[in-house]
Amino acid sequence: MNIITNPTLPSPCWVLEEERLLHNLQILDRIRNQSGAKILLALKGYALWKSFGLAKPYLNGCCASGLHEAKLASETFGKEVHTYAPAFKESEIEEIARLSHHMVFNSPAQFKRFASIAKEYNPTLSLGLRINPEYSESPAELYNPCGLYSRLGTTAKNFDESLLPMLDGLHFHALCEQGADALENVLGHIEERFGRYLAQMKWVNFGGGHHITKKGYDTDKLIALIKTFRGKYGVEVYLEPGEAVGWETGYLQATVLDIVHNGIDIAILDTSAEAHMPDTIIMPYRAEVRGAAEAGVKPYTYRLAGNTCLAGDVMGDYSFDTPLQIGDKIIFEDQMHYTMVKATTFNGIKLPDIAIQHSDGTAKVVREFGYEDFKNRLS
After folding, report:
1. Per residue in 342-361, is it b (16+ CB within 10 Å) or e — as a string?
2. Cα–Cα distances in Å, from 164 out to 49, 86, 115?
3. pLDDT of residue 283
4. Domains of the chain, each with CATH number or no CATH
């Protein structure tokens, strides 16, 4: 079996395909231009900063989940920086405030505690509050920010109107890999619970989870929803896609190290679901494998498994046209988003290197990982 895309690249290795990234960026740019919205890259989903030179012309900046992402955005993207965290630490307020253009608080208590201090450090800082519409169509409860007892965002019942004189904007995040129909329904609940405040705002941030670059997404409806909302309330609208930027823009290349048999054939790879593809275990999520199908569809079925001691370190069961051999390459598709940012060195397993395949067909390894990366994280 020979499915390797570029034989010069190491294994394991994440490979970004520039042409695919550019395709997604152009879709997002059309949304910006036709709707009037601003679009930020959510670093929590995609933070391959060596590709930011390509992304900058198509996006307005980055949204950060805390100090380190804010620093990365400021240093490597250089446009707008919007920072939100479920709770800010007092020791980090000054640096976050100086780095950020927008700072969004999760609760009225945090707003009251830190908003004035943050403005002293950065008088031009725009202050926001995350709200919880108490409605979401999230396909998995683990990823539902509006579920029962959610800590994320302020409900209408807990909204504190004394914040209004300092409050520039509202932020919500209620989607997870969803389309414009789900957004429309969420907006209905936003207006029902918080409508009386919207016209008093300078901006409203629609958060992330918009599956804009997935085939079949209704971009025209998204544009219409944004334009209607902007016109109705006179606010600037922001979107914060992460997955939509990295969606189907690259792969994780791995190698078969051994094949064992215990009731089924099991191929042990030089990568790990637990360490490098955690959503495979957490969601659970099944990655597509190039040249493979569901178990039993093709003549030869194997369980693909990781090289750690975790018994459940398994990517799934796949079938192939020909038998797998030691040394064969396995290509896991769509591995740019929520993989690099979540990866660990569990068991001391090597992190995959990072490569960029340029539009001219050449490929370059932009980051190699080794023992020192493992060692330096621990002490």
Report:
1. ebebbbebbbbbbbbbeeee
2. 36, 20, 12
3. 80
4. 36-246 (3.20.20.10), 250-335+343-376 (2.40.37.10)
CA distances (Å), 190 to each of 106, 223, 244, 251, 279, in order? 16, 18, 23, 37, 29
pLDDT at 5 over 90: no
| Percent above pLDDT 90 for the chain | 94
Please tell me the distance from the alpha carbon of residue 38 to that of residue 237, in angstroms, as a whole number: 6
First to last CA, the chain: 42
Q: Is this prediction's pTM over 0.90?
A: yes
pLDDT, residue 1, reads: 44
Comparing CA positions, the residue from 28, 95, 86 lying closest to residue 55 is 28
Do 33 and 275 form a contact (C-beta atoms < 8 A)? Answer: no
Residues 6+ apart with CB under 8 A from 298: 292, 319, 320, 321
Tokens, residue 32: 């910006």
The letter for the amino acid at 16 is: L
